């Protein structure tokens, strides 16, 4: 089923607002989670006007939250654990902060325990709590629990951009493209602004979609342009990851489109592009010899040349290549000398 038939026509009129994380008093109805550092480049997100509930903390709780937040920004998980280990209170800002930091530090089991504590103590859950829980359980591979949490969130909170973003992120982790599209449709139906982060996460989920993934991904990117959104390098990296079965001309066209928009590649994009052009290359076990013996001989000369050309472009642009991309580059350089001149 085509994407256009699955997602309704989206309005180009967006309601934009900015959300902030505040260390002492958090506005949870409109709170925005910290980005996942590996792949996110997020700005403010849009949503319809909602009532905002401020939560005031005691002086001791404010101090603790400040310390936990500071440690979390530095990814000092042991320090967060030490600070949180003696805390027996029920302040949602502190519990939510630890959940989000557990995501940032990939301590998913620890995040699960904090959420279970919130449930067991029957505390009021809100946007940041649900957002963190969705991604924690998705990262743990518990799809049914993700759906249960989402249903509870929808029964408890009004939909907003950050919460929707968390659900689409969870769908991306699970490879659940249908759920990602459902959330985009929900945002449209509730007149909540769709931001580029939503499209980018949906593209990540698209990697596991059935059928011609690259065609679905192209239509999703087109939606972003129709909404006057500005794709970034993360968006195009997620797009290209859906092109594993696409013709070479489609892969090159997507890269050309990115260049036309003035978006500079980074090392993640470079690796994604080269591996899509040359086919699946196992991480961790690839050597120059294995690539030359097992990968390059099976590829048409046009794809080998396209990978060489792209790597030249990336190096000229000053892109710092990943370890895998460096191995591929070395393999191509020596392969170049082995290939008879036309």
From TrEMBL:
GO molecular function: mRNA binding
Species: Symbiodinium necroappetens
Biological process according to GO: mitochondrion organization; RNA processing
Protein name: Pentacotripeptide-repeat region of PRORP domain-containing protein
GO cellular component: mitochondrion
């Amino acid at each position: 089923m085509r994407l256009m038939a699955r997602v309704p026509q989206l309005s180009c009129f967006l309601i934009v607002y900015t959300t902030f994380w505040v260390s002492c008093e958090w506005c949870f109805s409109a709170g925005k989670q910290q980005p996942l550092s590996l792949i996110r480049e997020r700005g403010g997100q849009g949503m319809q006007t909602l009532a905002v509930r401020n939560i005031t903390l005691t002086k001791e709780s404010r101090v603790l939250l400040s310390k936990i937040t500071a440690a979390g920004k530095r990814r000092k998980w042991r320090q967060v654990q030490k600070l949180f280990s003696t805390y027996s209170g029920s302040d949602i800002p502190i519990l939510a902060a630890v959940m989000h930091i557990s995501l940032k530090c990939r301590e998913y089991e620890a995040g699960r325990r904090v959420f279970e504590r919130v449930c067991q103590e029957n505390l009021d859950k809100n946007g940041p709590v649900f957002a963190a829980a969705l991604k924690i359980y998705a990262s743990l591979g518990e799809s049914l629990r993700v759906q249960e949490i989402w249903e509870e969130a929808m029964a408890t909170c009004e939909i907003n951009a950050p919460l929707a973003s968390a659900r689409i992120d969870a769908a991306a982790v699970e490879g659940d493209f249908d759920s990602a599209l459902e959330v985009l449709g929900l945002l449209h139906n509730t007149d909540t602004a769709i931001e580029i982060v939503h499209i980018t996460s949906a593209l990540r989920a698209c990697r596991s979609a059935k059928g011609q993934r690259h065609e679905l991904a192209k239509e999703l990117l087109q939606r972003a342009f129709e909404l006057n959104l500005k794709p970034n390098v993360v968006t195009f990296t997620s797009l290209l990851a859906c092109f594993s079965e696409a013709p070479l001309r489609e892969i090159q066209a997507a890269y050309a489109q990115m260049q036309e928009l003035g978006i500079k590649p980074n090392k993640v994009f470079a690796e994604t592009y080269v591996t899509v052009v040359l086919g699946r290359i196992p991480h961790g076990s690839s050597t120059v010899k294995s690539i030359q013996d097992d990968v390059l001989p099976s590829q048409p000369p046009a794809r080998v040349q396209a990978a060489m050309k792209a790597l030249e472009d990336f190096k000229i642009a000053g892109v710092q290549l990943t370890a895998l991309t460096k191995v591929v580059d070395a393999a191509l350089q020596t392969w170049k000398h082995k290939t008879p001149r036309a």
